[in-house]
Amino acid sequence: MAQKPNPLNSITISGPIPAHLARAVIEETLRSAILDGRLPCGTALRQQDLADLFGVSRMPVREALRQLEAQSLLHVVAHKGAVVAPLIEGDATETYALRILLECEALRLSIPLLDEADFAEAASHIDHLETETDYAEIGRLNRLFHMALYRKAPNRRLLTLIENGLWEEERFLRFNLGSMGLGKLTQEDHRELLRIAQARDIDQGVAKLTHHLNRAVEVITRYLNSIESQGKTSTN
Fold first, then answer.
1. Residue 139, Cβ density class (10 Å: 0-12 exposed, 13-18 middle, ≥19 buried)
2. pTM attached to this predicted model
3. In this structure, which CATH number among 3.40.50.11270, 1.20.20.10, 2.70.50.60, 1.20.120.530 belongs to the domain 92-235?
């Protein structure tokens, strides 16, 4: 009987990792492998296996796994340890309702503090999104665009929660965008949101962001419902 491939074999480590960088290197390496699918949903990540792979003790591994769990990329499951999470958690409507609250607050706090460099960076991400066809890169650029507008919010904990949600969305888009039948992704919402932020119109910015995220949840919910319907049809 053929031995089942070990997903950890897809991860290459080049040279020893300095002790003071171990946690960050492990976290970033595993995050990249989860986001690009080398570590699929349901993959169990055992601390000792990871410690052996990275050539470190279990302490930085444990810390890295804790960070990835906070980013909704892992779950801790009884008798299995850390397991790569599903592509989207629970009810998409509830997930986006929470994102709207958090992101609107960050935008409200950030707009007065944004400068021309922030606006130029956000505009650059939009320009790249207009021509990008790689779904992985589209998800990454979308995350970077939103964080460019939120990042001046002085509440660091709020920004951490928001970025965790954007990581989850990036991973979902990477593997589902091609199947969602959206055609070319226009950037009208993003350009309008940037224009409003440049005008320092906080109320209009919050209203536009709310509309933008509500449209996203409608598309994703419709797509997930269609998958569920197809699954029920195939089993009947």
1. buried
2. 0.72
3. 1.20.120.530
